[in-house]
What does this fold into?
Amino acid sequence: MPLDANFSDAPSSVCRAPPTVHLNGVTNAKFAGAFDRQCRIKIGCFEAEHEPRALFVFGDSYADTGNHSPYVPILNRPWKLPYGSTWPGEGFGRYSDGKIFTDFFVEYLGFPAAPMTARMAKGKKQYDDSMHGINFAYGGSGMFSTFGPLIDPVHLQIKQFSQMIESGFLSKDLIDESMILFVVCGNDYTAYGDKHPNDEGILDFVPSVASEIDWSLKAFQALGVKKISITKMLPYGCYPKITSKVNYISCNASENARTILHNKLITDYAERAIIATSFGGISLPWF
It folds into this structure.
């Protein structure tokens, strides 16, 4: 069964145009085209009656739209320039000079705005559709503890989500009609490298991270979620912190080995989840 089985039959005529992507103030048509192919192939196109009612977001800084407090000095960097310099012109809680993956994703789905952050949702007495879902993602987060006690790992994000369902703040009907975006981009491996400068044992650590991701997928299913889009990991050996060692000339193949293993394992877990249940709603988009 294909990973995007429940999306693949939607007619191409209902696909939306890809979002306009600006990097350093310049429209990047190549990136926008890649995003379009990504969404069409892996996310698929939603027929109008099957579009998600809301989006619930989990993960790290690639998805966090403002959960770091602007009032805590050690956490408030994304609320200050140069973050937000190309969009919206000031620090806006995102670890980017402009939009992040969540912003592009919701544009593609046709949402008028990104989901409300969990930080802001805590002040709400009841959920309403103008919130477009809730973003629990937290910059620096991983499947395990990464960069200190102030950074919530993914399992605590899921716990917040579960508590909102149990309290009735989020209804079961809402969850049934909504979608999850799950973004995990390697903070566990960065934190591991901080403790093991030579990366000894890193390939033995990868299955532990993948297993936690598998646990998360099962937790979402147990909470009644019907659609999940989970990102694979970018080539770690092509990160600027790695390529800077060779003047950005080439990627590091040995560093990329963890990415290859990571992506294979989470793909296997997702396939098993689809085969083992009638769930059928997991897709695996690349950035």
Observations:
- Residues 1-49 have pLDDT under 50 and may be disordered.
- The first strand starts at residue 22 and ends at 23.
- The chain has one domain: 48-283.
- The chain has nine helices and eight strands.
